[in-house]
């Protein structure tokens, strides 16, 4: 009967240890993992598509009569689009995809400036990646 008591005590200690480890794992703050190459590529594609859509506005007449400041902003946005597209095509690492994302977001900021100069409603500002992920997760 002594060995049965030992087995029961050992089992109880193992169960208690597993429960304590589970509680400790839950309380430990989670670290955000850096985006994988595939995640970074998807994000870069997302921002490039948004920039592409902004460069083809529905109110073409307003763009055709743009003043110098709006024209300069549109030119910068188009240059960012061209460069982001080229970087995205050549990218292989998460850092390279992040650079393409940065350029696309910069182009969107130039588009916002052009819209504001023309008196149009500007497109929504890009959300930081953490907020965008929460927004998508909530849908």
How does this structure look, described?
This protein is mainly alpha-helical. It is built from 6 helices and no strands. It has helices spanning 2-27, 37-55, 60-64, 68-90, 94-117, 129-138. The longest helix has 26 residues, at 2-27.
Uncertain segments: 134-139
Helix content: over 70%
For this structure, the quaternary state is single chain
Tell me how many strands there are: 0
**What's the overall average pLDDT, rounded?**
79
Beta-strand residue fraction: under 5%
Report, as a whole number of angstroms, the end-to-end distance: 59 Å
Question: How large, in whole angstroms, is the Cα Rg?
Answer: 26 Å
Structure classification: mainly alpha
- H/E element order: HHHHHH
User: What characterizes the major β-sheet?
Assistant: none
Helix count, DSSP H or I runs of 4 or more residues = 6
Shape: elongated
Set out the fold topology.
Elements: H1 2-27, H2 37-55, H3 60-64, H4 68-90, H5 94-117, H6 129-138
Helix pairs in contact: 2-4, 2-5, 4-5
């Amino acid at each position: 009967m002594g060995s049965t008591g030992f087995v029961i005590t050992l089992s109880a200690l193992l169960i208690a240890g597993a429960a304590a480890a589970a509680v400790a794992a839950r309380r430990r703050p989670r670290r955000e993992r850096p985006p994988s190459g595939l995640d970074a590529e998807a994000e870069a594609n997302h921002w490039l598509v948004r920039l592409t859509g902004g460069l083809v506005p529905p109110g073409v007449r307003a763009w055709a009569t743009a003043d110098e400041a709006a024209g300069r902003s549109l030119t910068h946005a188009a240059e960012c689009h061209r460069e982001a597209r080229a970087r995205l095509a050549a990218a292989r690492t998460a850092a390279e995809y992040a650079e393409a994302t940065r350029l696309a977001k910069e182009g969107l900021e130039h588009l916002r400036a052009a819209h504001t100069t023309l008196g149009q409603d500007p497109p929504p500002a890009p959300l930081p990646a953490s907020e965008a992920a929460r927004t998508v997760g909530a849908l």
